[in-house]
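[job 0417] fold request received: Acetyltransferase (GNAT) family protein
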Amino acid sequence: MQISENDFIFSDQKELLQIESIHHYLSKESYWAKNIPLELVKRSIENSLCFGIYKNQEQIGFARWVTDKATFGWLCDVYIAAAYRGLGLSKKLMAFMIFHPDLQGLRRYQLATLDAHSLYEQFGFKALENPDRQMGIVLPNIYQETDTEAD
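[job 0417] inference complete; emitting structure tokens
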């Protein structure tokens, strides 16, 4: 699936994804995946429903859904390159994704965000009503380099 709007291309075609560009953003610029190894980014893309935004054949945005395409979807790794923020691309990407055929009829759509609540609220996301029912194992610094050499 692909649409063009104002010289931007929105696509779910994995063959268009520029893995090195995605890795660079996630490992160097994101707050949630600092130092993530390239191999983990590749594996996450292989096992997810992915979306890209392109301008002049350059990838300038990305998002992926971890989903079984039946009951559950987790939206993650959403970004727009800094030079393209403020143009409404996040909203257009959300609208493109939320109506994707593989994401219809799910029982639960979830995400986590530090600072984009107002964007996601426009698409029906809200704080969990029963957060005490949610559990997880969170390893926030898993990609940080550690010194494992013995003295």
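[job 0417] notes: Helices lie at 19-29, 38-46, 89-98, 117-121. The chain has four helices and six strands.
[job 0417] exit 0
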